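Changelog note: in this version the structure field was regenerated for every chain. One regenerated record is shown below for reference.
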Amino acid sequence: MSTALKKIGNPVMRSLLAGAVCASLLLSSGCSEAEAEWREAIESSEQRTVPQYGGDLNIGTVSITLSALSWDPADWTWKSPHDAGMIREQLFAGDLDLAVSRGGPFPFLADAYLPSDGIRGELAESWHWEDDLTVVINLRRNVMFHDKPGVMAARELDAEDVVFTYELLRDSPRKIPTYFDHIDTVEARDSHTVVFHFNEYNAEWMYRFGYGYYSSIVPRETADIDRRNWRNVTGTGPFRLTRYIQANSQVHERIDDYWDTESVDGVEYEIPFVDRVIYRIIKDEATYLAALRTARLDILESIRWIAVDYLQETTPELQWSRWLSNGGNFMALRLDREPFGDVRVRRALNLAVNQREIVETFYGGHAELMAYPQHPDYGDYFQPLEEMPESVQELFDYNPEKARQLLAEAGYPDGFEFRVQVCSCSPTNMDLVPLLENYLKDVGVRIRIQPMEYGAFLSSMTTRTHTPGYLMGSGHVNPTTTLRKSFVTDQTWNPSMYSDPDFDRRMAEVYRTRDEDTRIEMIREMTVEILDQAPYIWLPTEYLYTAWWPWVRNYAGELRVGAVRPGPIYARMWIDHELKRDLGFE
């Protein structure tokens, strides 16, 4: 068995991949003729550019291991635009006409970052600033909410629905602190005009209630129903939710007479093209890789590097894209628990971890040493490690001798012990945590590992009952939110409990700053500061892969057009049924 395979912590996956390689070798002498046939079929299919309607699209999304967290927008769950984003729409979305695959500049891979020139109106037809603190949104006409027995009859979206959604979120006890503090009121000026009155400018205004995690518009009829019941979910999107089985699947069926269209070769087509989109929820990594190989999945959006070579050997028909994870990986250290209030201890733990070895050996080179809290896709907001001060660069060097020295200076010459929670939903972190355990043990620090299911893992952080160490991945979101949510006092997604009044003040000033060049300068300075303070053990960011069968058309690996929201992407895909038959799967 190869060294790389030995490094996979999941024995079932090791067995699956090793078996696949053996099968590939055994059959290789007879593969030439079959390979020529499928290559010819794929090349022939490329001449068919007219969209086709019908069929099912089975997708393993980037959240394939996770069931829906809640169907109630007032619960403020981060995954809501993923779970309900086929049914509910937002004021704004990414403009897929500007995707790299269509000759544009944007890859549409970021978890929740849309450059200002990559945004289109979705439910918003147009918008303008009436004055420095007033934004007017003109809604599209003839956009219909789906009929939902027991909830509502089909009717047109209007401005009161937008106001209702905003107030529902604003008044929720689960809301993120300060999230809507820049908004005084939202009013319906007439049936299709919504006016946002701000008390101060906020650089994230389009994201906060336009295309973000908490901005999907719901009808006011949902005020008096059980919004957590999936059977009550409705919206204006291209699909309706017709079935949901926790830990198994959720099924979306096509809406006829949906308002939006797709332009292909200058011709406008009604969308969606497919009859059904099915999210497959599969917790076991070996199982979802097998589902892709056997075409039970048409698309698998997130694949670890360790599986790629074997999938390419055993299933050469697959199409591929590679992307740098939008989730930073780190071990948060609670600053409100001893000994992590001492920056020397935090820096020592960073020096004890051989980051470069993790990149080269654990990730096989498929990772970046430093790509968090800013992401390289953020342009000038991102500052490469080699441009950082020496004190920051030092944290990414392996220096166990200095780590022991700092621990001794802090009063821990013999080290200490602490507990670390890790989510069993993350194959990468489940494999990584024993390696971190060994690194820290070499400098006298012992950790007790506590694996948890995702619901309990997330709840422990949001209720502030999580352990002193908390190994997690967290989305960058965008250049400002990545700092606000993770390091501003009392923010929900601040697992290190970092708190600095001056940092909070400067973060608020960033949001009030209209000039982007000035914001970039401020963000770069604050990013250096937070890296230097080491509230986390900073860990490398991995490259991930998306694979899809070639019968999936009008697709090139795009993942999101808003906050973890793929719905508009799926609505524009179609299935080449002839190619699927030629390859023996229909």
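Spot check on this record: The two ends are 36 Å apart (CA to CA). DSSP finds 19 helices and 25 strands in the chain.
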